[in-house]
Write a structure and sequence with these properties.
heterodimer; A: alpha/beta; Udp-n-acetylmuramoylalanyl-d-glutamate--2,6- Diaminopimelate Ligase, Chain: A, domain 1; B: 140 residues; alpha+beta; Heat Shock Protein 90; 5 helices; globular
Amino acid sequence: MKLIDLVKVLDAQIIYGHEFLDREVLSACGSDMMSDVLAFVKGQAVLLTGLVNSQVVRTAEMVDMNCIVFVRGKVPDEGIIELAKSCEIVLMRTEMEMFTSCGLLYSKGLRGGSGK
Amino acid sequence: MSSLQLHFDVDGEDFTRAGEASGSIKRTLKELGLTPDIIRNVAISVYEGEINMVIHANGGMIDCEVLPDVINVLLRDSGPGIADISLAMQEGYSTAPDNVRDLGFGAGMGLPNIKKYTDEMEIYSTPGVGTTIRLKVYIK
């Protein structure tokens, strides 16, 4: 799945990173707890979260994720967007809830990780 | 490759800036051409340490030394210290306040994560004096 497909499935709004929407992604992780993301993510490219602060971007940066989807209509502030730009991490937001977002993406072929 | 030393002072006042040092170390390791696994292991470990400094210790210092065969990291703070290190090393044990959990941390995974992603970890702490953590990630 490409990031542009993610936008369509989630009816998402792109906040930053239009130029990177042809990135291919195979797996994702949904969490509001960044400690868990740091502990269990390996290789997942997309982070879905309802948490909105700069540490979401930092966490994604540390584990090499290249797209963050803010669920439940959350809106990141300018500082978060600037940080994402500096790391070239695509930001998007959807009005959908976490469970619905993850379920839809899973049904379209996106998977979780091994957790190792 | 000769040795490379990096030093960072971590500001304990501003949660939004936590991770700046880790990000900078990560970029430097990338420029040095190290493998993604090694970069990721160091980045996550330093980031967890940096977050801990900001949450618990009002900041601290991070030193990172890159040698041909190993990356050494030294995390130092003058915070309240850890009374029971073996307890703090258990997954799920946390003394972080609720406001930290609201920020996505404080799940009691910080120190266990650091151990998980490094080849060697030594932790020294004296209550009321501070905490020092030494890490090694080998370049295989």
